[in-house]
User: Fold this.
Amino acid sequence: MVIAAPKKHIALFLNIVTDDELLTSQIVKTILLLIIGGSMGYNLFRVVRADTRNKKIIILLLLFLLSACMIFVSRQYRVEAAMLKNPRYVQGTTIGYCSVFAEGQGIEFEYKINGVTYRCCNTFHPVSKESLVVPGGKYKVRYAESYPNEGRMMFKKN
Assistant:
């Protein structure tokens, strides 16, 4: 049995799993990517027009920060697009509680795909903690074939 390393999910504030939730998330991310891209274009223009070296450095630092945000958001966009276009489902098992960055407590779970065991940690919001079976709860996990390590547990009983 091969176990893939646990993946820390960053900024997954809600348990986004259903088609409607993924579609809404994609719309929000599209708007965010347009805003970031527009800001990058505007700041590129400003760098050319900046008259002092200090202004150019500040604008370049801002461009670097915007680029990092663009990379992060576009990666999440690709993962969710793959989940929306070609979803796959397997049964997963809750293992225990874990820490989700910026959100607090989440639920760690594992699932198997083609003999490889993956572990993930997702938030369970808006589902109440008391309604979940941890450890040992059996729930569906939605994943995309191109991102098997990015599964998301659907906290409805199978």
Q: What stands out?
A: Residues 53-85 form the longest helix (33 residues). Residues 5-13 have pLDDT under 50 and may be disordered. The radius of gyration is 19 Å. The helical segments are 19-49, 53-85.
